[in-house]
Amino acid sequence: MTSRLWVPPWPLDVRATVDGLHRGSGDPSMRYAPDGSIWRASYTPDGPGTLRLQSGPDGVRGTGWGPGGEWLVERFPEVLGALDNPEELVADDPVVAALVRRGRGYRIGRTGRVWEALVPAILEQKVVSTEAWRAWRYLLRRFGEPAPGPVAESMRVPPPPQVWARIPTWEWHRSGIEPVRMRTIRGATSMDAERHPDKLTVLRGVGPWTAAETRMRAVGDADAVPVGDFHIPKVVGQTLAGTPVDDAGMLELLEPFAGQRGRVVRLCVRYGTWPQRKGPRMSVRDYRSL
């Protein structure tokens, strides 16, 4: 076990900053404990590790377990936005300025683990989150090794690429994943994603939406815009213009914030106005019965 205390030099909302890394209720790789601590399991360059983040009056303490524990502890400030520069967002627009004030402690962090952001993003392609998170839970519990430390019975480490490449076809079916997303993840194992986070779209089945979702979490790309999302253009339009828009309308609204468009998107999603739901929602599909 290794531990260190970090004192952020600016206001920090730890929960808001890391919430985008959480893949739904029951995510085996991340959980919020009743005592307020946040736990994450990750497969680092040094091997599997577990990180606990505990906020207190003196700062944020990171504690790590396993071969990758030291790697996680050394870099946890980056997960909490230590390398982020929110001041680069010039909020002349009064709506955006209000979002910035509401999200004063929110920062864009970076995990430094591209593969662990890419796989769940692929699982979330063109489906409701519930369906993707169900598959994520199944595959991690089935193929992820127990997280080091005191959470070995309840948490799992996301597998490295070579493990994903060997998952049998029938296990993908049992997870609820159809062949298209299965082939996309398998194909992605051919690239060293950690070294080439700016080339993800050369992979078959990985488009701008998947790349943006991955880059925002893994490398802290403040300009990453998830074009092609079902909800986000509507939320951005409702928040910034008072009416839902499509992708083209969203990009037009975000143009004045070039370089920080992804930050504006995240502020809209977290602190903005969601349009009133009309019509039927997308259904949760289940390929396991086919």
TrEMBL record:
Residues annotated as signal peptide: none
UniProt cross-references to InterPro entries, sorted A to Z: Alkylbase_DNA_Glycosylase/TA, DNA_glycosylase
The name this protein goes by in its record: 3-methyladenine DNA glycosylase
UniProt keyword annotations, A-Z: DNA damage, DNA repair
Gene3D superfamilies per UniProt: Hypothetical protein, domain 2
This protein's record includes keyword DNA damage: yes
Cited SUPFAM superfamilies: DNA-glycosylase
